[in-house]
Write a structure and sequence with these properties.
Rossmann fold; N-(1-d-carboxylethyl)-l-norvaline Dehydrogenase, domain 2; single chain; 2 domains; alpha/beta
Length: 329
């Protein structure tokens, strides 16, 4: 007895992120239908899909040839055709509230009543998009914000609005997980969600350091690339400071909290790490890693960095070779 064909995913918008989602879901075995109202955009998307799949195949990141993966993706200028029978409609339109709202209103008129309606918005909250929409539509509408490109950065933020049905959010997380993503459920709507708030905090400070003459663009990028970025590719900011200080997060907050408070105040942001806040962070970290296992985890971190080192160190040379091979510039 053969397994049933997985339900289709519809992509509304054939720009770069739309094509990236098509790659993700087609690679995972789902049929995908990409919609765009502009024929020239669909032509560009077809070529981009082929290029991305060829590159993945070249790096051994497809479990099958590129051709059958590409064959799972259809392109259409008819919205009703794209969303018919879809389990998930992933909207990838430009970052404009009214445009997204009107598009979801149209999608809801054609998609199955069970379809998850997800926006790829980078900052707009689902509740803003859902304003004025029927409750039945708002209950199925949420944000599914990916890292870009999602077939290489597996995190995705699932951000429901207060009007979103909890079961819909869980269903969305399940569909994303089946495609190889790691869903993060964002518990409260905020502009920019988690990904872009963290990214924005670093970028704001980077601009300040450049403005104040502390370091150049190239040197700031080098600190992130060869320091923070290399470490953050295996552990996040809380685990980083937890493992950097014997005694863990509590010890780090005691030693470094005042300095970070002064640095924040210097930028007009007075958000001290209060005792209750530190206690909450410590409690969550100790659930994940008891202090008795701290040294073992530090050893694991160092070994992971050792495994990464040859690949990271080779990257600049590969980029130089690529530029020289294409004539530089």
């Amino acid at each position: 007895m053969t397994a049933p064909e997985p339900a289709a995913v519809a992509i509304a918008g054939s720009g770069s992120i739309g094509v990236a989602f098509a790659v993700l879901f087609a690679r995972a075995g789902r049929p995908v239908r990409v919609w765009d109202p502009y024929p020239e955009a669909l032509d560009r998307a077809r070529a981009e899909l082929a290029n991305r799949l060829d590159l993945l195949a070249r790096h051994g990141l497809l479990v099958e040839d590129a051709a059958p993966v590409a064959a799972r993706v259809g392109f259409t200028g008819e919205l009703g055709e794209a969303v018919a029978g879809a389990a998930l409609v992933q909207e990838c339109a430009p970052e404009r509230v009214q445009l997204k709202r009107e598009l979801f209103e149209r999608i809801a008129g054609h998609a199955p009543a069970s379809a998850v309606l997800a926006s790829s918005s980078s900052a707009i909250r689902a509740s803003l998009i859902a304003e004025g929409l029927d409750d039945a539509v708002a209950a199925r509408l949420l944000i599914g914000h990916p890292g870009n490109p999602p077939y290489l950065l597996p995190v995705i933020e699932v951000v429901p609005s207060p009007r979103t049905d909890a079961a819909v959010a869980e269903r969305a997380a399940g569909i994303y997980a089946e495609a190889g993503l790691r869903p993060v459920m964002v518990r409260r709507e905020v502009e920019g969600f988690v990904f872009n708030r963290l990214q924005g905090a670093l970028l704001r400070e980077a601009y300040c350091l450049l403005r104040d003459g502390v370091a150049s663009v190239a040197d700031i990028d080098e600190v992130v690339r060869s320091g923070l970025g290399r470490r953050w590719s295996i552990i996040g900011p809380f685990e980083t400071v937890d493992l950097n200080t014997r005694g863990g997060l509590a010890s780090h907050a005691e030693k470094m909290g005042p300095a970070y408070e002064r640095m924040g105040a210097e930028r007009g942001q007075h958000d001290p790490w209060t005792e209750p806040l530190v206690a909450r962070a410590v409690a969550q970290r100790r659930e994940l890693l008891p202090l008795a296992e701290w040294e073992q985890r530090v050893h694991w971190r160092d070994e992971e960095l050792m495994r990464l080192t040859p690949e990271w160190d080779a990257a600049p040379q590969r980029w130089r070779s690529l530029r020289e091979g294409s004539g530089g510039g």
